[in-house]
Amino acid sequence: MTLKGLIAGAALALMLAAQGTQAQDTSDPLGSPRWEEMRQTFFPGAEVEFDERVRVSAPTMAEDALNVPVAIDLRKLQAVEEVIVFADFNPIVRALSYEPAGAHPGLAFRLKLQQSTPVRAAARTADGRWHIGGTWVNTTGGGCTVPSAGTGSPEWQQRLNEVSARIWPRIDGGSRLRVQVVHPMDTGLAAGIPVFHIDRLDISNADGERLMRIHPGEPVAENPLFTIDIPASATGSGGFRISGRDNNGNPIVAEVAP
């Protein structure tokens, strides 16, 4: 390459770098150029603040874009009524939402990512204010457009919405509940495979008190696995009930013995 070509190439690189810097939203701690769009999409007209009490844990580099572990920690935030989890650069931005009810307001699960993106949690408190936290996750991508393994297996139709669960005691006297549901969680972005995902999942104690209602979206990983913590005051007489449905109306029903 000639000297003139090298100079032109360097100038182009500097111009693109400058454009990338200008594209960043400096009001956003994660610098996402899509933050303003996210704010208008999810919180139009509402009070929004970035809050260190909303902690989102996920791998900095996710090796498997189909199963990216995410944990939402809201132990330091009081009076949480609703939580939305979303990924700025996913083709389906909203991953899930949930209402904590009697459980602790945190949640752990796995999701699919199409490319590197901020993953955020927005917690609405009783005063109507949204508190935002998040983290960048880097990945090779493609997680949202790959057919699920369950879709190609004849076994999934026989085991669809089958629930398995496990309970651990917590040192504070409460319980940790891990629930897994057999479901392909198809995004509808793979050729010839329609949208098919769990629409609602209710977790209650044996006395019928709701602990958490989860609305998983298409980006939640196949055979979704949810982990929630339950205070001793909400464990009831022992055991838990799982109920819900997918977007085709197939029911989910299970009981978990203590």
Describe how the helices and strands are arranged.
Layout: H1 3-23, H2 35-42, E1 48-50, E2 55-57, E3 61-62, E4 68-73, E5 80-87, E6 94-99, E7 107-111, E8 117-125, E9 130-139, H3 155-159, E10 163-169, E11 175-181, E12 198-205, E13 210-216, E14 225-230, E15 240-246, E16 251-256
Parallel strand pairs: 1-9, 3-9
Antiparallel strand pairs: 2-4, 4-7, 5-6, 5-8, 6-13, 8-9, 10-11, 11-14, 12-13, 12-15, 15-16
Give a brief rundown of this model.
With 258 residues, the protein is mainly beta. It is built from three helices and 16 strands.
Q: For the report, how would you describe the main beta sheet?
A: 10 strands, mixed
Tell me what the CATH architecture is: Sandwich
Q: How many structural domains in the coordinates?
A: 1
Instruction: State the helicity in percent bands.
Output: 10-25%
Provide the low-confidence segments as ranges: 1-22
CATH uppermost class: Mainly Beta
User: What integer is the average pLDDT?
Assistant: 90
> What structural class should be given to the helix and strand makeup?
mainly beta
From the alpha carbons, calculate the radius of gyration and give it in angstroms.
Answer: 21 Å
Throw out a few tags for this protein:
single chain, disordered N terminus, mainly beta, 258 residues, 13% helix, globular, Immunoglobulin-like, three-stranded antiparallel beta sheet
